[in-house]
Amino acid sequence: MRCPARLRAAAICASLAGLSLCSPGASAQATQVERMQAHTQVVIDAYGDSTTLGISCSEGHCAPQAQNAVAYLQDELQTHHGDRVRVANYGVGGTMAMQLLDGTGNRRAGPTAGLPWRERLAASPARIVLINYGINEVMQNQTPEQFYTAQTALVKTARALGKEPVLETSNPMPDNRLNARLASMVAMTRRVTDEQHVPLVDQFAYISSLPDWKTLMSDGAHPKPGLYRLKAEQDFQVVEPLVRRLLDGTL
């Protein structure tokens, strides 16, 4: 059972003073510690396409699902760290990394809608930004080099603003021809993480290694909820250590 704030403050006070009774100044200091601890929170912004938004398809109908990778990731992080962690889903269907960079891909309402990446991120309280693109770059006939340039700019800007960027490769696509082109985009994401020394969640490699992974897809691009949960587990393995270090004050 969680102790009331006053009791926890008193315990801190007693620990500091080494006595069962504390001075008013020490009590105030303990209360301030409690307030600081209560307001410590790590916000994570998840940016990406419809697979970040969480779209799944059934009987020809596609729609965002509550059971998506971002929601699962927040659930898992909050299981370990409570409400000190919050994950915001900024996935937008049909968008590319280049559009996130220039602000043309944000069709959602809100105070930062349509802002270029630098302005949008500067206004965000997020400490960690998770970035997942690649599929629409294939569908819109972008080149791997264009994708590489956009992702590099996203990472460098995030770093310059004091954020911790994490790149994520796309889930594979069942169509072999499209998947071969997607693999070229994936290679660019891996290249950026190597050059910029940022964490990578390699969903493409992980999902491709699963037996019968195509049965976990709801259509040619979007996972079923079960696969979104598996994606979230991979996200957690990379993101949780960053969250822990931020909460501990060691990052």
TrEMBL record:
Keywords: Hydrolase, Signal. Residues 1-28 form the signal peptide. Residues 46-229 form the SGNH hydrolase-type esterase domain. Pfam families: Lipase_GDSL_2 (PF13472). The lineage of its organism: Bacteria, Pseudomonadati, Pseudomonadota, Betaproteobacteria, Burkholderiales. One of its GO terms (molecular function) is hydrolase activity. Gene3D superfamilies: SGNH hydrolase. It comes from Paraburkholderia strydomiana. This is SGNH/GDSL hydrolase family protein. Transmembrane segments: none annotated.
